[in-house]
Structure formats: C-alpha cells, structure tokens
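ping. complex inputs:
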Amino acid sequence: MDEQTRNTAAHQDLTTELTEHVRAAAAAGRPLKLRGAGTKSLLGRPVADSAEPLDLAGHAGIVNYQPKELVITARCGTTLDAIDAALAEQGQQIPFEPPRLGARGGPAATLGGTIACGLSGPARPYADAARDLVLGARVLTGRAEVLRFGGEVMKNVAGYDCSRLMVGAFGTLGVLLDISLKVMPLPRCSRTLVQACDQATALERMNRWAARPLPITATCWADAGDGGRLWVRLAGAEQGVLAAQSAIGGEPLPDDQAATFWTESIREQQHGFFGGDLPLWRIALPQATAPLDLPGPQLLEWGGAQRWLRSTAEPAAIRAVVSRCGGHATLFRGGERTGAVFHPLAPPVLALHRQLKHAFDPQGLLNPGRLYPEF
Amino acid sequence: MSLPQPSQTDFNDPRLAATRADLVRALRAFLPADAVLEQQEQVRPYECDGLSVYRQLPLLVVLPRTVAEVQQVLRLCHARAVPVVARGAGTGLSGGALPVGDGVLLSLARFTRILALDPVARTARVEPGVRNLAITEAAAAHGLYYAPDPSSQIACTIGGNVAENSGGVHCLKYGLTVHNVLAVTLVTMDGELVEIGAAAPDSPGYDLLALIIGSEGMLGVTVEVTVKLLPVPERAQALLAAYDDVERAGQAVGDIIAAGIIPAGLEMMDGPAIQAAEAFAHAGYPTEAAAILICEIDGTLDEVAELAQRVRALLLASGATTVQVSQDDAERLRFWKGRKSAFPAVGRISPDYYCMDGTIPRRHLPQVLRRTAELAAEYGLPVANVFHAGDGNLHPLILFDANKPGELGRAEALGGQILELCVAVGGTITGEHGVGIEKINQMCIQFSPAELAAFRAVKRAFDPLELLNPGKGIPTPRHCSEYRQLPERGPEAHHRQ
Ligand SMILES: Cc1cc2nc3c(=O)[nH]c(=O)nc-3n(C[C@H](O)[C@H](O)[C@H](O)COP(=O)(O)OP(=O)(O)OC[C@H]3O[C@@H](n4cnc5c(N)ncnc54)[C@H](O)[C@@H]3O)c2cc1C
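pong. complex structure:
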C-alpha cells in the first residue's frame, strides 16, 4: 500500500476519532445511531430521532488481503464493490453474495453495515452464511473500548466466539471497526437452468436435489402469472457442472441473463415481485416445509428455506402460521415498523439478550431499539 | 508456577464428605440409585479427560437419563452454589472436563438416542451423548453424513463437539462444528431450558448459537443438538505427495488454493510424524521424506477427475519428489489411516506426548517450524508436527517421559512457548482443542484485560454465579497479572526443577 492510497478518503483509520466519539457519548449518556452508507436504514426498527448519528463510512480501506490464505480484512466503511474488485483480481469472491440494497446511483453499501445486518444472498444454503464466513472483528463497544475477537485464521476457539455474535446484531453490541472474512475462489464455470413448475413441485425438486452431491449454488421459484418457474444455478468445475446439468435438466439461461437474474433481480430485489408498497415479509423455514397457506404472493429462495411474502395480513397471523412450522418472520420492508419487526423472542432468550446487551453496551447507547423495543 | 494447577482437594476431607452426603441425599430424592456415584473407586474413572496430566476427583458424579433430571440437578446445585462440570466422552485434550474437587461431575453419557433423522430436510436431532461417528452411520442409509470428523470420532460425543467447536480433516471445505450445527437445547445453570438456533436459517436476535459453540461447557449444558447432514460426495480421491523440504510442501498448499481449488482435506506431516505413523499404520508413507501432503478432492465423478489432474500437476510443479494418486477407496483410506492415527502412533514411540493446537496464518509456517525446532533443541525434547495445512492449524507433538524428573514441566513450558509463538505471528493458541485448564495462561497473552473482561461478562450473562466449569477457559485478572509478572519462562527455569 503506497502513501497515496493510504491517505485517500477510501483508506483511513478513524479508530481514535470513533473511540473518542463513543467515549463522549457515554459520558453524556447520549445514544448513537450507527450509519455506514445508509443502504440498509429501512431494515429493522427505526432508532429514536434523538440519537446522534455516528458516521462510519470514513473508516475505510482493505487492511490485509491474503489470497493464498483465503482471508481479507477490511475496515467497516470499505464498500463491498471495492472488496469485490480486489477479490476478483485474484479470482476470488465473497461467497455469501451479500445484498447491497442501495438505490441505483446512490451510496454504495459498506462491509460494516452488511455484517451488522447479517444478510446473505442467493448462495447462502449452498455456500455459507455471512456469519459462517466471519473469522474475526475489531469491535468498539458501548464502553468505548476497542476489543479484538477471533482473528485472520480459519480455526480459532480461544475465548467465546464474540465476532460471530456481532453478525446480525444491527450494531446494538458494538461498532464493527474491522472485519476479517473467509473468501473463496470464483467458480470456473456457472450455468443457470429454468424449469416450469408450481410451488409444491419446486419444493420437492429443490430438496431432492440438495440431498444429492450436485454443485447447486442457488435456487429460486417465482410465479409471474405463468404457473411458476424454478431457477437453479450450478457452479464449480466445468465437468461437474455439465454432468449436473444433464442430471437435472431444464432450459439453460444465457450467461449474461443468468448473472443479471441472480444479482439484480433476486439479490438486489429488482424482480417485479419486490416492486410496489405492500409490506414485504421475509420468512425463514426448515427448507422442506410444505407451501405455506398465507394470503399474498410468495417468492422462494434457498431451496425453500427463505420465502418472501407480500401481504397485508396481521403480523400475528403470519407469525402464528410460520411458528407452527418452526420458522420465523421478519417484516423486511414497509408496514408498521415501530412494533415487532423481528420475530418476538421466547422469554428466556430475551433475558439472555438483555444481559448480553448489558455486557457490551451497559448504557444502551448503540442503536437503541433497532432490533427489539426492549433494548 | 508452570502448570495452571487445579486447586487440589482431598476426596476424604471431612467437610467435603459432609457436603457430599447432603447432596447425595438430595439427589437420590429424584434420581435412581445408579445415577449417583459417590465412592472414591466409582468416581476415579472421571478424574481426567484426554489430557491426563491433570487429575482431580470430583465431589461426586451424576448420570441423569432425562432432560428433566438434568434441570433438577442444575437447579439443586444452583440453589446450593455447588459447581458443575459437564462431561461427554472425556476425549478432550485441554482438561475441559477435568472435575473440580468440590463440584459435581455431570456425565451426559446416557443421552445416546438419535431422536429424529429427516432425510428430506437433511437434519438429525440427537441427544448430546451420541458419538460423532454414530450420526454419520445412521445417516449413511440415506446417502448422507455429518461433516466434521475429528480423529476421535469413534468415541467423542456431539455434546463435546459443540462445547469445543471441534474440527476434523475436512474443515477447509465443509467447516467446523459451528458451520454444521443448526440448533441446540441448552439447560442454563438455574435449570432453565433454552432453545437456541433452529432448523430455519438466521434465527432472530443475536447469534447465541455461535456463542454456545466452543464455549467449553461454561455457559450451559447441551441436552439436544440438531445437525445438518450433507450428501456423501459421489467420489473422493486422495493424492499423497512427498517432499524433501518442509517449506516447499508448505508452499504447495498455497499454490493449490491460489489455483482456485478447495480440497476436501489438505494435511501435512513432517519427518518424525511420518516415521511414527508409518511404523504404526503401515500406510505406505515415504519414510525418508522431510514432509508429506495428503490432498483429498471430492465431488461428482467428472469434477474429481478434472481436479485430481490439476492438483497432481500443481504438486509436481511445486517440487514434490513423488506423487501417488489413490486408485480406489481402499488406497484412499490407507493414505488417511496414517494421518488419522498420528497421535496414538507418536504415543508408541515415546512414553508420553503432549499435543499442541495453535493456528497460524499459513504464510508464517516456515518461520514457525524453524523456531519450534530451535525451541525443541533448547528444551531438549523432540517434536513431531502434524498440520491441518489447509486451515493453518498446527499440532506439534512434544515427546517426553513423565517418569523422568522435570520432563513434564519442560514439555509444558515448551508447549507454552510454541503457543506464544503462534500468537506472535498473528495466530491463536487453540484451533480446535479448546483452552480448558491447559491454556489458561496463554489466554493472558492472546487477549487484553478488557477483552478478557468482556468474556467474563458474557459468562455472567448465562451463569451469574459462575458455577459452570469454573477455572476453565477464561482466566481471572489476578491469574493473568501473576502470570505476566513471572520473572522467567525459559527452559532453564524447568531444568532446575
Ligand atoms: C486421539 C484423539 C484425537 C483427537 N482428534 C481431534 C480432532 O481431530 N479434532 C478436534 O477438534 N478434536 C480432536 N480431539 C479432541 C476431542 O476429541 C474433542 O475436543 C471432542 O469434541 C471432545 O468430545 P468429548 O465428548 O470427549 O467431550 P469431553 O472431553 O467429555 O468434554 C469436552 C468439553 O465439553 C464439555 N461438555 C461435554 N459435553 C457437554 C454437554 N453436553 N454440554 C455442555 N458441555 C459439555 C466439557 O465440560 C468439556 O469442557 C481428539 C482427541 C483425541 C484423544
């Protein structure tokens, strides 16, 4: 890294400034609202207006990248685009395909916000989830202490796994300063196949395929008034992909269309299903669960484990159906956002959450109420 | 002070005997007679785990059969402030299941049922005492298996695997326990039942599952585990490459990964380890080699054929003196047999051995191996190296004889130095065996006082009275300030013992 890159806005270490900021907020008992690029500010519950914004986009830059060790460490404000570009030069990628969710032409999603929200893209059930790939993190707690958990190695069981604990915590336990991720090679070959079928058939097929050693890396089912179609992506060594293609069949999609479909339509939710203002629910289920009987259209991903629903049904009614199947439901976008946006927690689990929040942020300064109204 | 000594208590101490008698009476009120062991010869088998240099008799042993019984035992101990140590098969290598003298040893050995196995959803719900290999055996009929495969998989339990976040030789591609467990049912110290994680992905709220996995029995007692099952690959093929130089073998590992290939397993052994393993397992290893690499490729038939060719070419280009490619499954398993029995093999050539477990950024391998050899010479003890090369997890095996005065102390001091070396190059003191009681000193080196305080706060969030597995995993500030002030941690301090 030469001096010039070191000093650009895209490569700055603001650890000291951010720590001072949190220290001052702690002294004044002033809550903080953590903000990267703001692409995910509509997720979760809104933080009270009285909270002072803490801007994290400036703390940016790739700190260490070791392609041969499959690890990259970057500051929270680094954009996913910058990371992708660095990885692609070495033929590698972030395997969980993190959604950006930013407006077209707007600010680019940051690594910190991505990990704090813990969202994973189409590859999740076949590759790994965001949490699976986090190897370590440097965290600024509500006590204004900078703590390092985990590291840059694949295997590490010293101390509790507090870096994974931060994934999906929506910044309520600490500011993720730097994050180390396991990265993986880009597949040499990728092929998307489309089959016409209804939801029940799609579920049956996706689960049957997943029980066989096939190089599937994404699945999606949607019904655009055509009775339904199932998209399957195969990726890996060329011979394996070709063999799997003939094993499962279907209409191949041209490569550029396939890339647009998975990245834009599904990961970035540009598919017509996601348009409009109806509340968007994200339902997570054991993947083999039969079709859910809920009012409103659905789009399925992750072999049936993630189901999107557009519905104005009562949250309690939706959650009752989903809970019975062993799943949980998040009001992902729209709807009434000051209530239980995330699935309510069982009392003993909620009690543990309160105590963990107290352990890392005793004054409740960081993103209060973003996850649950109770903390 | 070199060994982090457990506080030694005398089993027959009158005060302890009175506490025991009281507790036994209370336990027998709800447990069958055979579920409480209180005689010295009955509890003797529980005095240590796989790290047998530490021994301590527990106050008593309980062997419950039901979750309700576990809850009752914990509630009782909680009310009386009696410490509890959970135990699976006792194969742990860091003294994690070492009893405490005034506490109950809670064995989960009777929880051996596979409760459900769903071949469509590819999950299994099992009791904590189920052996790791038993899950794979039960799943085999459906063409499925449980991926993490510690070398101890015949004996170790899934409850122990969860507690240690155990790995195996296939973690580079298939992950550790944390990547393959979907949910656990936990009983916290106050007897409360808590469901953590689910068969559905991304449970709401904090990722408590990540916290529980690898928590060494300090946050709660696992009474049920739901694991993910994977389809058995169509084909697996192993390559065995010999090198006359350890550094070149290390280089080859990076070359394979840089070529975009993620092998199912990628293991390395050095000369002394090769010779011990060959003498024990007759795996056909080249005993004159300075290092061997075992690289396993799996996937569909065509995929494996393609990748095996590429790996073979990469190994030859990296300077391997010979490369053998397994022709059938029998040969593949033979390549693995030596590696998987490396620990007992070393146990045969030396009266005792001490297994270390550091992980390092792989680029520092040459430096770490060189420095380890220097340290071994300084301490006058031979070291054999077994290495999960793909993920940087190093197992130096220190050979010693506990019957020779001072050797045990020297072995442990040398081990401590090796671990501190791992930390110095940016690695960690334990990749998969856990901190237990063994590495409690090195925790003071790897983590700052504020980080250790955060761990203790996590501990108290689950167990405010700190009754579960006390003295393990996370050192107290006092312990660390004493350790950091030790005037001398070099070999001489132990030669003088
Ligand atoms: C020859 C040999 C080879 C090995 N190879 C490997 C290897 O390749 N990879 C690897 O990772 N490890 C390996 N190990 C280490 C060991 O087998 C693992 O750590 C294993 O997971 C321990 O399981 P166990 O059932 O024996 O647990 P125990 O030793 O009984 O206990 C281990 C820890 O888990 C806690 N615990 C156990 N059950 C529960 C429960 N139900 N609830 C809460 N806490 C619990 C105990 O308190 C203790 O802290 C090896 C050990 C040996 C002896």
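Chain B has a mean pLDDT of 94.
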